[in-house]
Amino acid sequence: MKSKTCCFTGHRQIPKEVRPALEQELEQTLRDLTAQGVVYYGAGGALGFDTLAAQTVLRLRREFPQIRLILVLPCPEQTRGWRSEDVAEYQRILSSADKVVYVSDHYDRGCMHRRNRHLVDHSGTCVAYCARSTGGTAYTVRYARSKGLPVLYLGGASPLL
C-alpha cells in the first residue's frame, strides 16, 4: 500500500511569480507518479501547497478515475480564523475527498506534527514544495527522509535540508 501512496508537504505561502510553474510541475509530477502506479494521494488540508495539491488530484481524478484523494487533517476546527473564501474551497475539497482522517478530536499543540507524521508514515513518496530550512514543511521533509522516502522537490526549491 505504501508504494502506491504519495503525500504532500509545502508552504502555506506561494509567491505569485512561482505559482504558475509550480502548478505545471505538480501536475506533471502527479501524472508521472500515477503512470508508475501511485493511486493514493495524501494532503494535509492546509492553505497554500496542500490546497493546490488537493485541487490538482481532484482535477486529475476526472482523467484517472483510479486515483484517490485522502485528506489527513489535524483536527475538525482547522479552518478557524481562515478567510471565508478559503473555508469555502476547503469545504469543497473536503466534500470531494475519497477519505478523511482526523489525527485529533480538537486542536492541540502537537496535532499539526501528528498530521505530518501520519502522512509520511503511510506513504512511499513525498512531493514537497520546500523553500526554507525551518518550519513545518522542513520538519516534514526531514522526517520523510529519515523514514527513507524519496522526496520530489518542486517549484525550483532546492533541498535545503
TrEMBL record:
InterPro entries: YspA. PANTHER family: UPF0398 PROTEIN SPR0331, UPF0398 PROTEIN YPSA. This is DUF1273 family protein.
